[in-house]
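Researcher: Structure prediction, please.
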Amino acid sequence: MNINELTCQIRAAIFNVHSTLGPGLLEFVYEAALTYKLISNRMGIKTQLGLPVVYEDISLELGFRI
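Model: Predicted structure follows.
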């Protein structure tokens, strides 16, 4: 699968989730629905990965998530 096909599938999943749930919900609701949709489409995904901040060669664990 090339990058265009991959992004097309991801965008389709995003639009499907938003059209089904509608606007106005909290972000974690959309995240959970999108995670379910992508996994059901057999896409290997990871969610809420930790992102350390490096300051003067020291990794600061600040709880940032991506």
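Model: The first strand starts at residue 53 and ends at 55.
Researcher: Thanks, that helps.
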